[in-house]
Design brief:
alpha+beta, Alpha-1-antitrypsin, domain 1, 17 strands, about 25% helix, disordered N terminus, serine-type endopeptidase inhibitor activity, signal, Serpin_CS, Serpin_sf_2, Serpin_fam
């Protein structure tokens, strides 16, 4: 009989650029407009706390991840935990331990998944999960049922006693769900693993108004005040949603996609990146998304492709989520076995931004906007490190920082 000392949870997300966009979206968009944008209980800035933890690990490097994917994976994990393990996850997410709020959390994700599932063909977001479990280990029926009904998770029986076969099964699934964009996600499994939980998010959409590749030229991008690099930079003169947030010293430009999503680009004032990062909050993001004033801009935005791979078992303890990675882990709501802990949470993401669209897409004190369209065209150049986010119906899907395009 095998001994199972570890439970392995892998978290995965992906964003890729779209060069095609189904007209089906335009027909279906109206059907979901009435869905509440506040489906999921607010996490008290979990996304921005996680961003700061990731950015502090490599201050001068690109950052890109999906707060939605991480949040959803931890919410699923919480259903299988007890005692201090559950408390740490819920508190780490900024949520209370009240049963009503916990139930609202899972129900909120169920509604969100149903909304995305209605538009799976042609919609820009695909969000889902899969559970791979060893048949030699009894997974509690309540946990399996909740995964299937609340999170629409695919479930598979997997022989971890043959790690190579198990690895191939899981990697093939991930490759299929991401249209072949991610292959060989899992590099190694052990015969002591008993479960792998995959969560993926796939985004593709075109800009509402695309850039012309005829206006794309090489421009200097100032990685630091003393270091520059030449990057292909897009340019378009148009009316943009624009504001100057003097409270945290940055300029914000919003670019809508053809679907429901919008990209938010945040350019800190010279030398103010750390101030902007420390001021990031849900409240600030909300204020940026409320702005509906346009100004004519000549916008310069670099084409970029960045990716992020994060071992969150090293990051989440900084946010108070640590018991699940130790011998103190209580996963009794998931598996009828006492010698189980979480060995790994891996989060992988990729974004590409070009003339046609993306894949991707604060606090604030006084927000000052320029309202007069009669003013001369203002030139805005994203030619130094900047932040960006992709938001769909007020839900933060992706968050990142571009240091080296």
């Amino acid at each position: 009989m095998r001994i199972f000392p570890f439970l392995c949870l892998l978290l995965f997300s992906l964003v890729v650029a779209s060069h095609q966009h189904s007209r089906l979206l335009g027909k279906k968009k109206a059907k979901v407009s009435s869905v509440s944008a506040r489906l999921i209980p607010r996490s008290k800035d979990f996304a921005f706390s996680l961003y700061r933890a990731l950015a502090s690990e490599a201050p001068d490097q690109n950052v890109f991840f999906s707060p939605m994917s991480v949040f959803m994976s931890l919410a699923m994990l919480s259903m299988g935990t007890g005692s201090h393990s559950k408390t740490q996850i819920m508190e780490g997410l900024g949520l209370s331990l009240q049963q009503s709020q916990e139930a609202e959390l899972h129900k909120g994700f169920q509604h969100l998944l149903q909304r995305f599932d209605q538009l799976r063909d042609g919609f820009q977001v695909s969000l889902g999960s899969a559970l791979f479990t060893d048949p030699a280990v009894h997974i509690r029926d309540n946990f399996l049922s909740a995964m299937k009904t609340l999170y629409m998770a695919d479930t598979f029986s997997t022989n971890f006693g043959n790690p190579e076969m198990a690895k191939k099964q899981i990697n093939d699934y991930v490759a299929k769900q991401t249209n072949g964009k991610i292959v060989d996600l899992i590099k190694e499994l052990q015969s002591t693993n008993v479960m792998v939980l995959i969560n993926y998010i796939f985004f593709k959409d075109k800009w509402e108004t695309p850039f012309s590749d005829k206006n794309t030229h090489k421009e200097d991008f100032h990685v630091t005040p003393k270091q520059s690099m030449q990057v292909l930079t897009m340019n378009r003169e148009d009316e943009y949603l624009y504001l100057v947030d003097r409270g945290i010293s940055c300029t914000v430009v919003r670019l809508p996609y053809q679907g429901n999503a919008t990209a938010v680009f945040v350019l800190p004032d010279e030398g103010k990146m750390q101030q902007v990062e420390s001021s990031l909050s849900e409240w600030a993001l909300k204020n940026w998304l409320k702005i509906d004033t346009k100004r004519r801009l000549s916008l310069y935005l670099p084409k970029f492709s960045i990716e992020g791979t994060y071992h969150l078992e090293k990051i989440l303890p900084k946010l108070g989520i640590k018991d699940v990675f130790t011998s103190h882990a209580d996963l009794s709501g998931m598996i009828d076995h006492g010698n189980i802990k979480l060995s790994e949470i891996m989060h992988k993401s990729l974004v590409e931004v070009d003339e046609t669209g993306t894949v991707a897409a604060a606090a604030t004190g006084a927000v000052v906007t320029v309202r007069s369209a009669r003013l001369k065209t203002l030139q805005i150049k994203f030619n130094r490190p900047f932040l960006f986010a992709i938001v769909d119906n007020m839900e933060l899907l992706f968050l990142g920082k571009v240091v080296r395009p």
